[in-house]
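Exercise 7. Given the components listed, write out the predicted structure of the assembled complex. Treat all entries as one system.
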Amino acid sequence: MLQLIARRILETIPVLVLVATITFFMMKAVPGGPLDTEKNIPQEIKVQIEAFYGLDQPLWKQYASYMGNLLRGDLGPSFKHANRSVNELIAAALPVSLELGGIALCVALLVGIPLGIAAAVRQNTWIDYLASTTAMAGICLPTFVMGPLLVLVFALHFEQFNASGWDFARDRVLPALTLGLVYAGYIARLTRGGMLEVLNQDFIRTARAKGASETRVVFRHALRGGLLPVVSFLGPGIAGILTGSFVIETIFNIPGLGRHFVTSVFNRDATLTIGTALFYAALVVALNLAADIAQAMLNPKQRAN
Amino acid sequence: MRYRTNRWSIRVLMSAALAGFVLVAGCSKPPTRVGEGNRLQILHKGNKSDPQELDPHIVQGVPEHHILQALIENLVTEDPTDLHPVPGQAERWDISPDGTVYTFHLRAGIRWSNGDPVTAHDFVRSYRRALTPSLGCEYAYMYFVMKGAEDYYKGKTQDFSSVGAQALDERTLRITLNGPVPYFLSLLNHYSWWPVHLPTIARYGDPYQRNNRWTRPGNFVGNGPFVLARWDVGHVIVVKKNPLYWNAASVKLSEVRFYPIESIDTEERSFRSGQLHVTEEVPQSKIAVYRRDHPQLLRIDPYLGAYFYRINTTRPQFRDKRVRQALAMAIDRKTIVENVTRGGQLPAYYFTPPDTVGYTSRSAIRYDPEGARKLLAQAGYPGGKGFPPFDILYNTSESHKSVAEAIQQMWKRELGIDARLLNQEWKVYLDTEKRKDYDVSRAGWIGDYADPSTFLETFLADSGNNRTGWTNAEYDRLLKEASRLGDRQTRYELFQKAEAIFLDEMPVIPIYHYTRVYLLRPEVRGWNATILDHHPYPYVWLAPRPEASLATASAAAQRP
Amino acid sequence: MPVTATASPALAADAVEPGRSLWQDAWARLRRNRMAVIGGVVLIVLTALSLFGPLFLAYSYEEQNLALGAAPPSAAHLLGTDKLGRDQLARLLFGGRVSLLVGLAATSVSLTIGVLWGSIAGYAGGRLDAVMMRIVDILYALPFTIFVILLMTVFGRNFILLFVAIGAVEWLTMARIVRGQVLALKRQEFIEAAVALGLRKRRIVLRHVVPNVLGPVMVYTTLTIPAVMLLEAFLSFLGLGVQPPMSSWGLLIKEGAEQMEEAPWLLIYPAAVFAATLFSLNFLGDGLRDALDVRASKD
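Answer.
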């Protein structure tokens, strides 16, 4: 186990370097720069500003100095937010995303897994259809429909919540619900699928034949195997919840990482883009490792490996 | 197959749903932000996007202006009803008979927010900073009316004393211009001219370079009615009343909070849920609804801006001005503003917005599809036959898309011309336009100051904002002459001639003149309609009222 | 006693029961699953409507009627009009073409790459597995938006290529899931038997591993097509997707969501059709999974 973890951490470093490099050159390849504005900037001024940010250096030099700073943990200054560093921006947005993502994840698991189990255990009954349909609702209503819909009903009609913002505890409810219900849908489907796979296996039949109660069969034997696809999905899924919630953050005006991830590209804010990409990459690697460990623990056959 | 009707699970489901509903419907309403704001005189404003910076010599956007207006005051400030220059940091000024020398007398006892006195030297030092090339002040050209400013900026001299800004003593500032500029005082209301406290900037780094931390809350020093209290990126910017402001006694607001809400739908919902007093915009589809149901909440103010299509005159099919005129004449502008944009905009039959400080163009375009067809035929494309298909370039936005689609249809129907729509992301669009890699491109221009020259000078041959490839020597000559004259009458006559040439040549197709459409709660007082959308905060206040939902407010407003 | 050559007729009949292949078996099971059949039918109907419907319509999807604006359903416009006066029914059917095409194209790409990649990685194990999955990790961490903007700039209006690009991103999760399944499968006896028999690795992967991972792959595919369609809506939201006057269901839903209070018909119909498609895909996918499950009892 420890060997696995150590090996993964070592493998992460080249991954991060590669991510930074690819993103760096992609940002340079795309038309438009951070200083482009509708009103024309006279050439002399442009030259000055570019000199300040080092944009007038040859490409390899820019890359080298960027990577040098990176090794010291300095992600550079942001272009769009002219007096903040990328480190600061990510540090400020991270706790917000963690909170939003954490609550959404809880919602997703608490709603999704039970729905999936119920659907699998009562396969092809009305319970299955109800649970499956409810799960589907989370998947087939895009967040930019669900979010405003929830706001319309609970914030504007019942006047129980604010339509946007992140100041009070109440403000967490609607965004986390919107985000969570989508993932709940996926999780429910995967749980159902995984459990059905397991429930049809021989050892389940054996357990039943031995007289084990249905509850025992489901929760002690089948669930473990049924959660396998969920765990596989959760690795990237969590990373997605934590950083990819651009739409939610836009609809509810939440100062999280998801917005930086997208708007930095539109602003051609290269340093911020690479910063968020690196953060996301590190997160994905860490979560994949956790998912693999969990999978190994859940799958007795693989543990022997 | 085992099957049990699980009554228990049904019961759980039903009771959960019931509990949820009761909880939600029965709870009392939590207090709203505007309710609290009304009591404490805190104004909550939607401010579209996060400011790039809060340094007046570096920024170039509108959201930045809304905030800076609270933090810094210049020699003059704006009258709240029509924005004409009124005494600010200067209590009075003398203008020489030939209109080239302005002598400002600063008030006694004016201070920066850290207690230091505001002196004429501060202004001179600020101008020097703005004109230092290494800072990269994008609006440096606003200073070029001042003697020696352009030379200093372009590095022709290192000696700032050659520039026409002199501190005669602590309280007297003399500015010498190249020639008479009748709108000079209005020019001073542009933030590029605003003073900064150099000793503070020097504390946090090189005052002549960017990325200086002096604009952080706690570091920021200004001389305006408010000070910077908080700046959380993407969340909120809070400014609090400045007790050291010379006119603090008449400032009624205690705080202003700016929320950078990018999505206009989110902003509108926030307004409805009582989180904002005033928004920056209104979603297009909701304008008619507000007009019908809550007209007292909707504001449609005239704005000094033009929406037009640039034509790339270097493309072969657009070289002939008859083609350009035909395209312009085939557009039904009335239908566009009434049925597409629906925001009370004015159809534009000339370029400079009407009544810009008393100037309205006498030349105009007509809506004349028949005439357009004749012109097109004369140019060699009868019925649009043989006219190569081209792209209408616009940046991603619902409204640009709708307008472009409408115009695409009009050109097809009236002229038989095939225009395709090309939607590009903002930066890509800017890049494409600058490289003149477009056929027809949607554009907008907002006036920097209150004078027609801010529009017409955009299309001088050497203007970086031209981007159409069109030049005209006579046009340039007329405008340059106008910039040397002091008399408004004569200048405006020159502008009329220039605009006549412009409309005849038609390098751009004016479509409509902007309005500012936004939502404003009835308790906000002193928020007047002004053409530059400036609302000086010392004159704004909140009428305290018992907290009411918008429904009650509109009912109350409609009572006779 | 002499052994007679012919056995009794009854026994002979038993012994020569016509055999059924795995696929025939699956098809029979699928046909019995009512919800899956309904799903399949709905899908076929919607596809047919989208493909051929626009030919029978009174209005084209791009005809504007500015004076009319957004009007509720009426005799002239069965599903109402949008804010430029375009017939919603026409836009809906035409949008169906776009959305279904997008879903198909991206998902096919994703399916092909993902299954092969995951199977090979999972089965091979060791070094190759590690390298292949590290590549997946890197690709996962790339900012997708930049990638798409870059493509839009290079390929311009060719949106089909764009959605192939989306498919090329979606395969990542598919590969992970397949690999997980293959890892579990590797230890099954019949795989060990195949190895013992000396079958070539490629044959084992293609003929034994792949068909057995089809279960979760089917389920995940039915989650991928809607994901792709939602992704297309997200891109339209950002302005990088389908260009006007073309429409897609995603674009229609987005426009409808913005006007859901003033013009609910603009949201209801596209959302309903979208949901119907997704539900159908799901039930069909479930049915396929149940039908293909090798371990489910035949009775």
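Discussion: The interface with chain B takes residues 62, 64, 66-67, 69-70, 83-84, 149, 152-153, 157, 238-240, 243-245, 258-259, 261-263 of chain C (CB under 8 Å). Confidence is low (pLDDT under 50) at residues 1-13 of chain C.
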